[in-house]
Amino acid sequence: MERTYSKKRVFISFDKSFLISRIENRNQVKIQIVNQENQEKYETEWNSNDAPTSLINDIIMAYPRIKEHLPIVEITSQYIQYKRRIVYGAYLLSSGHIVKQYVPIIDLIKQLSLIMKRKDSFAISDGEHVYNPSYNEIVMLFEI
User: Fold this and answer.
1) Which of 2, 19, 47, 59 is the most exposed place for a label (fewest CB within 10 A)?
2) pLDDT over 70 for what percent of the chain?
3) pLDDT one-digit tens code per residue, 91-136
């Protein structure tokens, strides 16, 4: 009997080496990581559902080498059919701050790509505070 999932979020490492899925079923969660180069699969057991802020910690605990491939970008919207919905993004910084940007996530990915090529820092604001993270302080870009 196949399990039905209530929610699945999909991520990819910025260098496209790893495809990561976070699967929620009722009040349990499982992390699946697939190495895109050799199709090796790493999977956690079903665990009780933690707070969403622990997502990056869950991924790193499941596969510690993922730290070498940060940041991670959420691509869930590519797997779900939205009717002309613009998907905005947010940055998760290594300090734990979440900085929401009401800009399409595709634009944030392009911006981050340029910043990473320059190995630079940049100013971002959540409307209340201004942050000046370096390119390597961006841990995740996720959809809001």
Assistant:
1) 2
2) 88
3) 999 998 999 998 888 899 999 999 999 999 999 998 899 999 999 9
Q: Please spell the DSSP secondary structure of 24-43, one letter per residue.
A: EETTEEEEEEEETTT--EEE
Residue partners of 37: CB distance under 8 A and separation at least 6: 17
Kindly state the tokens that stand for 7. 């929610």
> Concatenated DSSP letters for 109-142?
HHHHHHHHHHT-B--EE-SS-EE--BGGGEEEEE
Residues 6+ apart with CB under 8 A from 43: 30, 31, 32, 33, 62
> How far apart (Å, rounded) are the C-alpha atoms in residues 110 and 105?
9
Mention every residue, 6+ apart, whose C-beta is less than 8 A from residue 45.
30
Q: Tell me the pTM.
A: 0.82
